[in-house]
């Protein structure tokens, strides 16, 4: 099976306490490498400069589509304290160019404005199953390049699944957590995922399914949401079962956190994801809305 991913690669400087790590990353890398763990072929629509070690992705058999740019790679400085993090945009690469691909599913996870509304529309027209993580559509920067979230009336018609945290959801809709999930559903999304630290909820029709990730010590949270999204997407495409998809997504996020690794080293192995998914499957709670 094949997953087409639309997202920028990045070079991240991650600061945790007094420790600083320079890592390649971006949702392109986290999603792409997680999908490869699920044995998916990956077409990666991205952009990066000469400063990015593209061989790393090629060695992992990720198919790069029109990826090279004369500009340097998108770069973030990320400061992490527990489950909270702040971002500073240090460089921005070119927008992603679209071309048709025969894929089983499409995953859109921009990190900062690399996907235009026109590109989004083109992807929708070609996609059988479309998953959107809207983070990069919602991000803006101030005069000091600090990144913050801003309201955006992104067109969600034709989107099958979306993953948001409460802060992101508030930029798209308003209300309580339940009301925001319903409002996103009314915009046309069939599967609405809301991640709130360790609490993960999935709205399908009029039911909310939820799991709780064990609340252990958190180290580097960078890319956890991307790993979660790719795991949900791949499981949904392979199994056609949203409950297993929820459990595999939670299982992947938990396995990545358990690794205590930094950057891409935390991408979990399929076996760890599977063990966690089976554990979560027996603990899923559900309620009617």
Number of helical elements: 9
- The domain count comes to 1
SSE order in H/E notation? EEEHEHEEEEHEHEEEHHEEEHHHE
CATH homologous superfamily title: Ribokinase
Bulk shape: globular
Measured between the Cα atoms of the first and last residue, the distance is: 34 Å
- In the sheet with the most strands, the strands line up as 5-4-1-8-9-12-13-14-15-16
CATH class: Alpha Beta
The helix content is 25-40%
Features:
289 residues; alpha/beta; UDP-N-acetylmuramoyl-L-alanine:D-glutamate ligase; ten-stranded mixed beta sheet; four-stranded mixed beta sheet; 9 helices; globular
Topology diagram in text:
Blueprint: E1 2-6, E2 10-16, E3 19-25, H1 26-37, E4 41-45, H2 55-59, E5 62-65, E6 74-81, E7 84-91, E8 105-108, H3 117-126, E9 130-132, H4 135-138, E10 139-141, E11 147-149, E12 161-164, H5 166-172, H6 177-186, E13 191-196, E14 199-204, E15 207-212, H7 224-239, H8 242-258, H9 270-281, E16 285-288
Parallel strand pairs: 1-4, 1-8, 2-6, 4-5, 8-9, 9-12, 12-13
Antiparallel strand pairs: 2-3, 6-7, 10-11, 13-14, 14-15, 15-16
Helix pairs in contact: 1-7, 5-6, 7-8, 8-9
Describe the protein's architecture and organization.
By secondary structure, the protein is α/β, with parallel strands linked by helices. The protein has a single domain, classed as Ribokinase (UDP-N-acetylmuramoyl-L-alanine:D-glutamate ligase, 3-Layer(aba) Sandwich). It is built from nine helices and 16 strands. The protein has helices at residues 26-37, 55-59, 117-126, 135-138, 166-172, 177-186, 224-239, 242-258, 270-281, and strands at residues 2-6, 10-16, 19-25, 41-45, 62-65, 74-81, 84-91, 105-108, 130-132, 139-141, 147-149, 161-164, 191-196, 199-204, 207-212, 285-288. The chain has a ten-stranded mixed β-sheet with strand order 5-4-1-8-9-12-13-14-15-16, sandwiched between helices. A hairpin with a 5-residue loop joins β10 and β11. α5 (166-172) crosses α6 and α8 (242-258) crosses α9 (270-281). 47% of the residues are buried. The model has no long low-confidence stretch (mean pLDDT 95).
């Amino acid at each position: 099976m094949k997953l087409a991913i639309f997202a920028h690669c990045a070079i991240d400087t991650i600061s945790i306490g007094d420790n600083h790590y320079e890592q390649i990353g971006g949702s392109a890398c986290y999603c792409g490498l997680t999908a490869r763990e699920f044995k998916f072929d990956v077409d990666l629509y991205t952009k990066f400069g000469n400063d990015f070690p593209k061989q790393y992705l090629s060695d992992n058999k990720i198919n790069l589509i029109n990826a090279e740019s004369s500009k340097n790679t998108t770069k973030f400085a990320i400061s992490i304290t527990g489950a909270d993090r702040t971002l500073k945009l240090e460089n921005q690469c070119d927008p992603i160019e679209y071309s048709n691909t025969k894929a089983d599913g499409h995953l859109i996870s921009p990190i900062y404005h690399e996907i235009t509304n026109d590109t989004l529309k083109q992807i929708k027209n070609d996609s059988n199953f479309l998953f959107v993580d809207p983070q990069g559509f919602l991000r803006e920067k101030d005069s000091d390049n600090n990144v913050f979230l801003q309201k955006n009336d992104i067109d969600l018609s034709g989107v099958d699944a979306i993953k948001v945290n409460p802060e992101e959801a508030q930029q798209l809709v308003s209300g309580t957590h339940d009301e925001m999930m319903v409002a996103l559903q009314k915009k046309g999304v069939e599967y609405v995922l809301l991640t709130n630290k360790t609490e993960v909820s999935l709205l399908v029709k009029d039911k909310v399914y939820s799991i709780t990730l064990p609340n252990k010590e958190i180290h580097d949270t960078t890319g956890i949401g991307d790993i979660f999204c790719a795991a949900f997407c791949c499981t949904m495409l392979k199994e056609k079962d949203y409950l297993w998809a929820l459990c595999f997504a939670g299982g992947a996020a938990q396995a990545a956190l358990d690794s205590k690794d930094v950057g891409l080293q935390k991408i979990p192995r399929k076996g760890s994801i599977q063990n966690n998914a089976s554990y979560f499957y027996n603990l899923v709670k559900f309620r009617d809305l």
